[in-house]
Amino acid sequence: MIKIIIRQIGLLFLSLFTLSILTFGFTQTFPDNMLFNFPQLIGSEINLFEKYLDYLYNVLTGNWGTSRINGNSVLNEFLNHIPATIELSLMALVLALGIGLPLGILAAENKNKWQDKIILSTTLIGYSMPIFWWGMLLVLLFSLTLGLTPVASRIGFEYDIIPVTGFMLIDTLLSKQPYSIEAFYNAVQHLILPTIVLATIPLAIFTRVTRSAMIEVLSSDYIRTAKAKGLPYTRIIWLHGLRNAMIPIVTVVGLQISVLITGTLITETIFSWPGIGKWLLEAVHRRDLVTIHGGLLAIAVIVILTNITVEVMTYFLNPRIRYKK
Amino acid sequence: MISRPQFYQQSEIPSSIARWTKKFLANKLTTAAAILLLLIVLVAIFAPWIAPYDPAFQFADQKIPPLWSSDGMKQYLLGTDDLGRDLFSRLVHGARLSLKLAFIVVFLASTIGMLLGCITALSNTWIDQIILRIMDLILALPSLLLAIVIVALIGPGLPNAIYAVAIVLVPHFVLLTRNAIKQELSKEYITAMLLDGAGRVKLFTHSILPNIAPTLVVQLTLAFSTAILEIAALGFLGLGAQAPNPEWGTILSESYAYITIAPWMVTLPGLAIFFTLLSINLVGDGMRDAMDLDN
User: Fold this and answer.
1) Are B140 and A125 within 8 A, CB to CB?
2) Could you tell me the pLDDT band of residue B200, with boundaries at 50, 70 and 90?
């Protein structure tokens, strides 16, 4: 077990090293090397290796350069924008898991019956949905035709919320304004459509993975023993079955982080959500390479860290590895 | 087989392709999807003859709704857009453009990816490890983000978007090819071939390639849907095909501003993307089932 974890940490450092080479290569293509301010280096001749070490030092000490557009520190800009994205992604993840797991189990229980067929074809529809179009359709139906939800942004302009944590749901409740509860409901309303749009593809994937994992588990001998012992059906499914099916599911949940980030790029554009995706796309349209570099670096580190954490989590979930000497 | 009563009237054993086709056609849904996909491909190929007008020609009638609504005009089947261009012609030409771009992307990505995959699988050296590390890193990054960064680096526009999406797709092919070959190499019939004195080239072309071909074909099909989706997404974000091009994602991003007054400009291009992706995914799934491949 410890050996495996040490191996994973080694892999983590290897991945981060490869990433640093990649991003360093990216900075070398900048038209003028204005990424960081090195007054001591201007004019002096240094080789590529020294440049790389310098780059590494700057990145690790939090000097990610300043945006060419507004002169702010890129790291600060990133930290200002990330809570909105985390809030949206977490909601989407919860929604996708909350619906995907039961649906997948339902499909596995009724394998090859009509319930299974309906669920499977629905997931295929969800999987084939271009989410930018899906977002527009939802806006057309729920916001413009029925008038149920707002069209864009995180909160109505009539509410003045001072950011404390950056998470709108928490900030509205923390605020001392008399309308903090209404503001909270307003923030929830703003969250609904983007969450649905972002959750669609992970939902389809979770349902399919849960289904196939559960089918495999339910056909195993120990489930038959449990049935023969006369245990209640729900107990067999949710306790005995799901526990073993969780291992592949957790792996796939970890892989979805990169799908979620791809989704936020599009979802935030449609709903004018002031998160990482919108920030990065604006930087792309303005060719603000310093900001793009910072965003890429930060997102890549987040994805790599999540993947490794999930990998280690599956080891703890799996007794075969947990008790291995 | 030997125990069959009419030993001398042996029926022909169907070839693998014949068996796969039979099993594929037995599923009505995938057959319907295959027919739909065929129709879309035919529309794409014969677009200039099917489309009634030039996709960029601007008529004086702007924002005319489709034929089935009360304000529709019979000369514009799916209505016109904000600049008076015939939407049906634009969508038909868009099919041609989208499928052509996806074809180029998949061709580039699969050629490079499979070559690299073969190299990594057959060379047990540090080359294998280096390529694997890089591919793992690219796979870990969100695909659209990487494509956006590449486009940001080399500038927006169609050719650059194609390169970006192709680069993003390469690692899938590398890993798939590598794993498939490694899996075959560990099987006993390969050992038998080696003991019979087969050379490397012979082993590869004669034994491994025919056995990994089904996996690769399914991956090729599914890569098509990814390619179409990513190109459309880049077009939607304004980084892929540029304005006058009738690319589906670009049409969608232009139409979003008119969603309240001309909703058909948003719904119809999206339907085109959706049905194309759905039919490709259904055909891919059906092929996987028919060939008995596990995920």
Assistant:
1) no
2) confident
**A292: which chain B residues are within 8 Å (Cβ-Cβ)?**
149, 152
pLDDT band, residue B244 (cuts 50/70/90): confident
Burial state string for B190-229 with b = 16 or more CB within 10 A and e = fewer than 16: beebeeeeeeeeebbeebbeeebebbbebbbbbbbbbbbb
Of A14, A133, A212, the CB nearest to B274: A133
From the list A134, A292, A304, the residue facing B152 with the nearest CB is A292
A26/B153 CB distance under 8 A: yes
SS (H, E, C) B67-120: CCCCCCCCCCCCCECCCCCEHHHHHHHHHHHHHHHHHHHHHHHHHHHHHHHHHH
**Which tops the pLDDT comparison, A115 or B8?**
A115
The tens digit of pLDDT for each residue in B260-291 reads: 888 888 888 999 999 999 999 999 888 888 88
Residue of chain B with shortest Cα separation from A20: B137
Flag whether pLDDT at A142 surpasses 50.
Answer: yes
Question: Which chain A residue lies closest to B262 (C-alpha atoms)?
Answer: A140
Q: How far, in Å, CA of A279 to CA of B65, rounded? A: 36
pLDDT at A37 (0 to 100) = 53
Residue B29 with chain A: CB contacts under 8 Å: 121
Residues of A in contact with B263 (CB under 8 A): 140
Among the partner-chain residues B145, B249, B252, the one whose CB lies closest to the CB of A296 is: B145
Chain B environment of A299 (Cβ under 8 Å): 141-142, 145
Show the tokens assigned to A276.
Answer: 């990482």
Note whether A29 contacts B266, CB cutoff 8 Å: no
Number of helical (H) and strand (E) elements in chain A, helices listed first:
13, 0
- Contact criterion met (CB < 8 Å) for A18 and B137: yes
ipTM > 0.90 (yes/no): no
Percentage with pLDDT > 90 across chain A: 15
**pLDDT higher than 60, residue A40:** no
Of the partner residues B151, B263, B282, the one whose CB lies closest to the CB of residue A124:
B282
Choose which CATH entry (3.30.1330.40, 1.10.3720.10, 2.40.160.40, 3.40.50.150) describes domain B27-48+65-290. Answer: 1.10.3720.10
- Prediction pTM value: 0.86
Give the mean model confidence (pLDDT) for residues B255-259: 85
**pLDDT exceeds 90 at position B77:** no
Q: Where are the domains of chain B?
A: 27-48+65-290
